[in-house]
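Query form — protein Nucleoside triphosphate pyrophosphohydrolase

QUESTION: What is the three-dimensional structure of this chain?
INPUT:
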Amino acid sequence: MLPPHFPDPLQNLLQLTRDLRSPEGCPWDQGQNHKSVIPHLLEETYEVVDTIERNDDPHMREELGDLLFQVVFHCQLAEERGAFAWNDVVREVFEKLVRRHPHVYKNTSGIQNAEDVLTQWDDIKRQEKQGKRSANSILDEIPNSLPAILKSEKIQSKVSKQGFDWEHPLDLFTKLKEEISELEEAIGPSPEIKNKKIAYDDHIEEELGDIFFLLVNLARKLSLDPETTLRKANQKFERRFKIVEELLREKGEEMKGKPLAELDLYWAKAKERLRSS
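ANSWER: The structure tokens for Nucleoside triphosphate pyrophosphohydrolase are given below.
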């Protein structure tokens, strides 16, 4: 079998995907279904995000191609089932985007800024969904499969539009202090410690979950994306920790076994090195 050679690169990719799934194609691709490739879809999405945050255009181009292939692959699987095809997906998203941008394509007035656009988008989306599926709650529209932080943000964004929200971000601090006190009470004054950890307790889990939920809401109130904010905190910790490892290697020393007070000194040096650079 020769690789497809159409003038249109997209046609080449569509035909290649058919080839991979054909009886003469790739055994691995032949054995996949929508659910089995979900991990790859998620992985490719995060790899695109990673290249964007690194301002890495060459790798972004590559990773966007990998993500595009995931979309094409799902379309091929759906076409084989007789559900829909690539052109159906493209046509539907095109028509939806035209429909949800009347201020661009119908020259409707009243749009002054990005916030107006989002309000209009939600109104049009709500009208589109009327009659399609009955929902007992505005929260029923949120997919259960979303990552927890993203779903938490979606929940709080939706209820906020109904007026169920604190007036000011600082109002959340009173609630946060309350939740922290409840977590401290759940842990207790003298918890049993094994391997630097407390044994699992469902009440502690519940109280800590309340704090996570509140912090997501605080991020939203501060116009921050909680996922991005946490990812940046992870990256900052990684940078500092790697410098600590480097400082220890320079002295020919091992981290494991050192007292925390000594490691804190290395941590302070790592912070200083990052500031100076």
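ADDITIONAL NOTE: The first strand starts at residue 193 and ends at 194.
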